[in-house]
Design goal:
Length: about 325
């Protein structure tokens, strides 16, 4: 039953994979692998909570299986439960000290909290298992990049790209190294490669927009942000960035939409306020400016920049 489920997952037939995995669990409810396959199918289908429940049932059936704990760490990371994920990775390595991927994830988490010494320490442990692995090279390059050495970073990550040119982790690290070196067109291409491999990597759109902005392609940069501006997940800072790009691109209506969205959510942000005032002055929209700023002052009467902005529109 395992192979048909994996085949369905590879071709993106998530409904088929889910049906087959449920049948496998029903046929063998005490088989931890069946529950793991169900977790994989549920995660692919977007049911992340159910996937975590399934992998935990698998672990309950086989608590000494390091591979299952490693999978659990991945699901926990997807839910941003960093502490629990770190605990699962520690359990993985305790059960199997040769789990290379667990070391890589641990080092990436250390990078995320800017603990470069710990990231280097873990990378050295991973190097004992596979010193030439492209994930390890990408990791070493990221540490060098964080330490302010983009030349070394680009050289090391470039080695990883030679052996695994299509790996999304390598492409992501390569894009960051290119950004640090000012090679913005190459960075754009690297990040687009990440999106081709992982369409759900939403924040990569922001990096693409930044690379395009550095090339002076403002309209394209603003357009690149659109996929992450839809829905409730877009932050005020993201809308502000989109508004700033639209403002420079000469599209005031779109700029106003995004800056107003950002301002309504976060009226104390000075960059958003400056962008809005620029638009109102350019369009001579004094009445709108007064209305919006008066409403903001009712919410935040102690914020001095709002008073200065409001007075700027008085005759």
């Amino acid at each position: 039953m395992q192979q048909p489920i994996l085949d369905a997952l590879r071709r993106g037939a998530h409904d088929d994979a889910l049906t087959l995995a449920r049948e496998a669990v029903a046929a063998k409810p005490d088989d931890p692998q069946a529950h793991q396959l169900l977790a994989m199918a549920q995660r692919a289908d977007g049911a992340h909570g159910d996937a975590l429940d399934s992998i935990e049932r698998a672990i309950a059936l086989s608590p000494e299986d390091a591979h299952l704990h490693f999978h659990r760490a991945g699901y926990l990371l997807g839910r941003r439960d960093i502490g629990a994920a770190r605990s699962s990775l520690e359990t993985t390595i305790r059960l199997d000290p040769n789990q290379f991927g667990a070391y890589v994830l641990q080092a990436q988490l250390a990078l995320g909290r800017n603990d470069l010494d710990d990231a280097e320490r873990i990378a050295r442990l991973a190097a004992r298992i596979d010193p030439e692995h492209h994930w390890l090279k990408a990791l070493q390059g990221m540490v060098a990049l964080r330490r302010g050495d983009p030349d070394t970073a680009l050289a090391v990550i470039g080695q990883a790209a030679l052996t695994a040119p299509d790996d999304p982790q390598v492409r992501y690290a390569l894009g960051l190294a290119y950004l640090a070196k000012g090679h913005f067109a190459f960075a754009e291409q690297a990040f687009r490669g990440v999106l081709e491999a992982v369409p759900g990597a939403r924040m990569t759109h922001v990096l693409i927009a930044g690379a395009l902005q550095q090339q002076g392609r403002m309209e394209e940069a603003a357009d690149a942000l659109q996929p992450v501006l839809d829905g409730a997940t877009a932050t005020p800072a993201l809308h502000r960035y989109a508004g700033e790009l639209e403002l420079v691109a000469g599209r005031p209506a779109a700029a106003m939409h995004h800056l107003r969205t950002a301002f309504d959510a976060s009226p104390l942000d000075l960059r958003t306020l400056d962008g809005l005032c620029t638009l109102w002055h350019r369009g001579s929209d004094v009445d709108e400016a007064c209305t919006v700023l008066d409403a903001a002052l009712l919410r935040e009467p102690g914020f001095e920049p709002l008073w200065r902005a409001r007075l700027a529109f008085e005759p």
